[in-house]
Amino acid sequence: MTIKKPGMSVLLGTQYGQYTIPAIIKRIYPAGFSKRSPLGTEEQRVKVIITPLKPFGTNIGGGYRLYGKFIIKQKNNVLTIPRYSVLQDLQGHNYVFKVVSQKLQKHLIKTGIVSNTKIEVLSGLSSTDVIVKAPSAAMKSGDSL
Q1: Which of these, 20, 22, 77, 95, is most buried using a 10 Å CB contact count?
Q2: CA distance 95 to 85
Q3: Which residues on neighbouring strands pair with residue 32, listed in sequence order?
Q4: pLDDT tens track for 42-101
Q5: Is the four-CA dihedral 115, 85, 112, 53 of positive or negative sign?
Q6: 105-116 burial, b if ≥16 CB within 10 A, otherwise e?
Q7: pLDDT of 76-93, one tens digit each?
Q8: What is the pTM of this model?
Q9: Alpha-carbon distances of 33 from 22, 29, 36, 50, 69, rounded to whole Å
Q10: Distance CA 44, CA 3 (A)
Q11: Is 106 left (phi over 0), alpha (psi -120 to 50) or beta?
Q12: β-bridge pairing 118-123 and 110-114
């Protein structure tokens, strides 16, 4: 992940994925440091100061742990699908299995931004297409549902 500059948007929330508190990066420290993770991996870290854009209220006390989701890039009105719906063939083309008349059809797509859970579809699908959410390696075009 690349944290570019102060003023960048951040969403704060709980470890369960409820990111509801908007914030911005106030300061990025100029030097990083190394820290060993609980699994024994050496990680490179940089301290970042984040300021919420609105008051938290009285329900958050000292020592409360929040997680941050850094908004690296944001687009509106895009088609996204589950990340694991997209497969790649031997030539490196991305595809999904589209359901057409109760049969699977391999359908090439062009992808854009990828997050932990979703992937942007630039071309090859419409919002009304039905796809297999979690395809298996055994699936192939022409298979019946």
Answers
A1: 95
A2: 8
A3: none
A4: 998 888 899 888 776 656 667 777 888 888 777 888 999 999 999 998 999 999 999 999
A5: negative
A6: ebbebebeeeee
A7: 889 999 999 999 989 999
A8: 0.61
A9: 27, 10, 10, 18, 21
A10: 13
A11: beta
A12: antiparallel
Residues in the chain, total: 145
Q: What is the largest CA-CA distance in the chain?
A: 58
Query: How many Å is the Cα radius of gyration of the chain?
Result: 20
Q: Tell me how far apart the alpha carbons of residues 90 and 85 are, in angstroms, rounded to a whole number.
A: 17
Question: Which residue's structure tokens are 């709980």?
Answer: 14
For the record, the structure tokens of 33 come out as 């440091």
Amino acid at 1: M
**Which domains, ranges and CATH numbers included, belong to the chain?**
9-70 (no CATH), 75-145 (2.40.420.20)
Q: Which residues contact 70 (CB under 8 A, 6 or more apart)?
A: 1, 3, 8, 9, 10, 25
Alpha-carbon distance of 21 to 125, in angstroms, equals 33
How far is Cα 114 from Cα 80, in angstroms, rounded to an integer? 9
Task: Identify the CA nearest to 23 among candidates 1, 35, 6.
Answer: 6
- Gap between the Cα atoms of 40 and 3, Å rounded: 25
